[in-house]
Give the backbone structure.
Amino acid sequence: MGNIDITQNFLFWEYRKVEYMANLGIPQNTIDVLQKYNFNFQKKFGQNFLIDTTVLERIMDAAEITGDDCVLEIGPGIGTMTQYLCERARHVVAVEIDKNLLHILEDTLKDYDNKTIINGDILKVDVNQIAKDYNDGKPLKVVANLPYYITTPIIMGLFENNIPLKSITIMVQKEVAERMQVGPGTKDYGALSLAVQYYAMPKIVANVPPNCFIPRPNVGSAVIRLDRYEVPPVQVENEKKMFDLIRASFNQRRKTLVNGLGNAQNLSYSKEHITEVLEQMGLSPLVRGETLTLEQFAQLSNLL
């Protein structure tokens, strides 16, 4: 009887182990997968895998994923968040740049038939085509734990390329998330703040400490949701011109707007003309770009 009891107990815990292995948000399960495949983190890809089930649930809640949604995940890693997405979404398209992760994803996601894994660089992948192929061209929801070194190019690429998007819910470096939602007159306010707020309504939904990742990053993180505007909140005649003005204004943020724009190599406005336009707007020629709202930058662009 003793031997039978021991065997039954062993089989029970083996069953429990298999059950828990399904959830990669549990740290030991992630470690088991990494050891099984002898995976080495690639610093060039900025790989930090999330190992906190509470944070994963917060991301799902913030993204409001439903059974009608097609989700684009950028950088699935070993499939930790992909599992959560597949449980909720109609279909998940995950774009992974690291070829060494593809066979791991095949294993960790083998129980889901509502996913497509694409090996590629998200900055080069045709996301419009993904929307056509997997969502009949309708807006996608983007969910991602983004590599910190390439966060801004990814976000701006999604916005500027006229990709059909409903929302973007992403994990980014905490200070970058804060920069996206601040207003004029603050030290974090800049070109990224204005660009994001032109395209979307930003809202930080959770702060995430370094110990929620493996390996641990050196900085804190935050989850931010960006709800895409159907129509931008300001009317501007030439978007590119406005963003050229914004970038020039913050390239030398301690200079006056007149000097910053007048000295910009890619702009051809005289300081006299800039001064005249600022006066039309009721602004001092000594004003700095960091004090202007998005509406004022749109007005400045239109008048120039």
About this structure: Confidence is low (pLDDT under 50) at residues 1-21. The radius of gyration is 23 Å. The beta strands are 49-50, 70-74, 91-96, 115-119, 140-145, 165-173, 200-208, 213-214, 221-228. DSSP finds 13 helices and nine strands in the chain.
